[in-house]
Amino acid sequence: MNPPKQGLSPALVTLMSVATGLSVASNYYVQPLLATIAHHFALSVNQAGLIVTTAQLGYAAGLLLLVPLGDMLERKGLIVTMTLLAAGGMMITALATSLGIMLLGTVLTGLFSVVAQILVPLAATLAAPEKRGRVVGTIMSGLLLGILLARTIAGALAQLGGWQTVFWVASALMAALALALWRYLPRYKQSIPLNYPQLLRSIFTLYAENRVIRTRAMIGCLSFANFSALWTSMAFLLAAPPYNYSEGTIGLLGLVGAAGALAARQAGTLADKGKARLTTTGGLLIMLFSWGITAVGTHSLVALIIGILLIDLAVQGVHITNQSVIYRRMPEARNRLTSGYMTCYFIGGAVGSLLSASAFHLAGWYGVCGMGALLTLLSLLCWWRGFHYEDQAN
Predict the structure, then answer these.
(1) DSSP per-residue letters across 172-220
(2) CA gyration radius for the chain?
(3) Which among 100, 257, 286, 335 is least surrounded, fewest beta carbons within 10 Å?
(4) What is the phi-psi region of residue 245: left when phi exceeds 0, alpha when psi lies from -120 to 50, beta otherwise?
């Protein structure tokens, strides 16, 4: 089946952006609440960090096992079903009476909220070729805005009705979203001569045979590890002296990150113009520089805000560029490319969360910033090794 002739209207792009943001936000409402949840269940810092790690690993499993189905099944039905199942996972979290039940709800939410990553390649398929980078940039801005604003919303709702309220409201929003997607999303299915096991195996084949795609996946992995390292430990920094902020105040810092995400939207337009190398190199250098500023955030809120803005700008700019590059290379395999790329991406997020909690436990905020700078240096090394395999057409 070919893409619908009507393509993507501005209203449909907006709906898909909102859907992507709300879906991925499901994994991040918990982060500004970690200190509160740790107190509620009498958890250590490392145990509380495990909640974030579980969310990321659940998301990675969904990316690997569920997202490739978008190349096989009718996408509208798949998207609506997964949205409803993600809502169910958040209901379990809201009802949790122990860490074990909370982890169960967390992993189910993460597993099915990968519906966001089926929406992104669908948008790339429906968009006109000359507008694909811009559309992907808009949808991916919705994704990162969801991640960041989840913290602001969660902090505000937790102050109004406790941390459980956050997940009740989020579950209801996802159910309403499923209804809107069922009503307005066009039906689309493509035919491929592969069964499910072959579909999964083909992901590894695609990446094994293409160095450009492997390089982009590794850069994405390390970049998102930086992002998770920053946001996982920030709640602990801001809840302690000299800040002593509440959940609501901590959540407001998500607005700073949102500004960075919006500023990075032009990366998709630049990629459409053949500037993918420029946005990648510039983004990684900004990321490295920003960790030095962020380290001053132990005693300066202004420095912390500037660091957040720059890190989120850099991560989103590199991410939009990565996806624009890989979507142009193999249009017929966009869901599988997304599966492989985003699996690496969120494994990086899970590792970054785990390392961040440990670094904060051992060396405080300076340890987190030092670890982030090291991850960025690894990203630059990876990019330097793969740089010469890309031409300006990518």
Answers:
(1) HHHHHHHHHHHHHSPP-----S--HHHHHHHHHHHHHT-HHHHHHHHHH
(2) 20
(3) 100
(4) beta
| Residue 23 identity | S
Q: Which residues contact 80 (CB under 8 A, 6 or more apart)?
A: 178, 181, 182, 185
Distance CA 283, CA 302 (A): 21
Q: At what angle do helices 116-126 and 301-329 cross, to 10 degrees?
A: 50
What's the CA gap between 27 and 90, in Å, rounded? 9
pLDDT digits (tens, 9 = 90+) for 335-375: 888 888 988 887 898 889 889 989 998 999 999 999 999 99
Give the C-alpha separation, 348 to 367, whole Å: 18
Q: How far apart are CA 275 and CA 308, in angstroms?
A: 25
- Tell me which amino acid residue 62 is: G
Length of the chain: 394
What residues does each domain of the chain span? 10-184+195-389
Q: Which of 319, 244, 255, 323 is nearest to 287 (CA)?
A: 319
* Cα 19 from Cα 115, distance rounded (Å): 9
Lowest mean pLDDT across 182-186, 248-252, 282-286: 248-252
Assign domain 10-184+195-389 to its CATH superfamily. Answer: MFS general substrate transporter like domains (1.20.1250.20)
Tokens representing 244 are: 């002593």
